[in-house]
Amino acid sequence: MADQQKQLQAVSEEYQKLQSGQSIGEDLTSNLTPVSELQSTVEARQKLEAQEQENKGVQKEFGKLADNAGIYKLVGPVLLKQDKLEAAMAVDGRLDYISKEKKRVEEQIANTQQRSEQKKMEVREVLPRDNP
């Protein structure tokens, strides 16, 4: 009975660490922010989606411009004139990067959810079952 209690305690602590964004084996006091790993990756995905929408809007506006239209880029406190083709290529590059990052973050979210579910199952397996 004592071994089962210790095993339940260990698995429960691992699950709690996973929920709080800590790695297994990491000291509880070393994590200063209680934001869970899952929550932070979901927030990262939301930021990427916002950036993607913004860049798609810019790309759409570039499609409406004439080839000789003046495009200016803000660099620090200065507006620099930029070629339309160069600006469009920069936006396309950002969209490509954002889509790759979204895919990476979504895989990370799925992995975290899978690890969380695995720990839940381990806790359930260790819990004593009441037999009537």
Description:
With 132 residues, the protein is mainly alpha-helical. It has helices at 2-19, 37-64, 84-126; strands at residues 71-75, 78-82. The protein has a two-stranded antiparallel ribbon. Strand 1 (71-75) and strand 2 form a beta hairpin.
Helices and strands in order:
Blueprint lengths: L1 H18 L17 H28 L6 E5 L2 E5 L1 H43 L6
Antiparallel strand pairs: 1-2
Helix pairs in contact: 1-3, 2-3
Mean pLDDT: 82
Distance N terminus to C terminus? Answer: 19 Å
Helical content stands at 55-70%
Q: Would you identify the regions where 5 or more consecutive residues have pLDDT less than 50?
A: 23-35
Query: How do the SSEs run, as a string of H and E?
Result: HHEEH
Radius of gyration: 24 Å
Number of strands: 2
Structural class: mainly alpha
Give me the number of helical elements: 3
Give the oligomeric state: single chain
Give the overall shape, derived from the CA principal axes. Answer: rod-shaped
Cross-sheet strand order for the largest sheet: 1-2
Beta-strand portion reads: 5-15%
Largest sheet: 2 strands, antiparallel
Summarize the structure.
With 132 residues, this protein is mainly α.
Keywords:
about 130 residues; mainly alpha; two-stranded antiparallel sheet
